[in-house]
Amino acid sequence: MKVIFSRSDLIEALTPALGAISPKRENSILECLKIKADENGVHIYSYDNEKGYNIDVEGEVIRQGSCLVNAQRFYGMVRNMPSDITFECGDNMMAALTSESSRYDIQYLDAKLYPNTPEINARQSFTLTQGQLKDIINQTSFAIGENNMRLQLNGAYFVVDNGYIRVVALDGLRFAERYIEGDIVKDNIDVAIDTEVRFIIPKKSLAEVVKLLEEPDEKITVIKARRHVMFKVKNVTFYTSTIDGDYIDYSRFIPKNETTTATAKVADIRESLERALFITEYKESGRMKSPVKLTFDGNVLAVSSVSSTNRFYDEIPVQMEGSELEIGFNCKMLLDTFRALDCEKVKLKLTTPLSAIAITPVDEDDKSFYYFTFPVKITESF
Q1: Cβ-Cβ contacts under 8 Å for 83 (sequence gap 6 or more)
Q2: CB-based contacts of 171: which residues, under 8 Å, 6+ apart?
Q3: What is the pLDDT, as a whole number, of residue 200?
Q4: What is the rounded average pLDDT of the residues 266-283?
Q5: pLDDT above 80 (res 297)
Q6: Which of 84, 149, 229, 349 meets the CB 3.0–4.6 Å disulfide criterion with 258?
């Protein structure tokens, strides 16, 4: 195999491909990229047994062929080259990368050693803008569980039909739901026409998807197979295994019958929690991290935190209805929600100091988002 690449084109193709390479794998083959040159051009493949990339890259094919090269070493060599690169597989399983007067030699392996990648037969698909998909992932992924015994909670739950997409995440302590209506087109290929698209995607895979979404107004096609989901953006195809099983019935966790509500500016609460975080995240030997306390009293929300050596206090104007209430939270967990919000104001809904706080749009008819976070106990000496 012999191919001439533009250095910039090759780097652009290799960068996402590294997202499906894990240096910690016991199987050294999965530390490799598969590079294939044929009559249709040059193709780069990466795969880690859970997710993978198929990427087409511009290149002048002098001689067709395929090989495997260590991904990290190959990427480092390419980045160090001064200009266009010639890649040629030679004898003794050694390949040469040359650029102007510079040359690297790298060992390669037979492409036949590469594992069989999943055969993805589309059953359903849908199309939406990259901006819609990026927003809905960024505003829910913080609430996905990690190493949860309920495997389904280690991913985000997607429900899609013509005109809408809903994504839900729940880690046992907090909940995030985003709902977007718009020009979302579903195509059922191998299932009943009225069937919604439903799947659960692992958190790490969603992080790879977000990297692909660089042009908010451009469309992206998402294809669902029996056990995989595939995302196509220009010359890049990313696919991932889905998490089997039904998602938890989260409706039973949603707080009901609130006794206190308060409307506040998102920026006010976010900035106050950021300041409180300086106290709550301070590590003291032999002590637990301090919670942040919210005190709803009249039209003032007091935000405070206390450690053995430091204190924080702040007041935020709110429009409150109902009874006074004090409640404590893990500051970072609550702050994650306010970092994700992109609206001006929200309504806070509370029931008791031991029940979750719900965060919703001010307009009760607006169902675009719903968040809740469970509290922590606060001591009387707080």
Answers
A1: 7, 99, 100
A2: 143, 144, 145, 146, 148, 153
A3: 97
A4: 90
A5: yes
A6: 349
Q: Please answer whether residues 372 and 358 qualify as being in contact, where contact means their C-beta atoms are separated by less than 8 angstroms.
A: yes
pLDDT tens track for 196-219: 999 999 999 999 999 999 999 999
Instruction: Enumerate domains of the chain plus CATH numbers.
Output: 2-113 (3.10.150.10), 124-250 (3.10.150.10), 254-373 (3.10.150.10)
Let me know: does 151 contact 243? Beta carbons within 8 Å.
yes
| Spatial contact of 222 and 212, defined as CB atoms under 8 Å apart | no
**CA Rg value for the chain:** 25
Which residue in this structure is represented by tokens 């206390």? 306
Which single residue is written with the structure tokens 């080259």?
81
* Residue 350 β-bridge partners: 260
Run of H or E including 210: helix 203-212
Reference 88, options 67, 110, 113, 71; nearest CA is 67
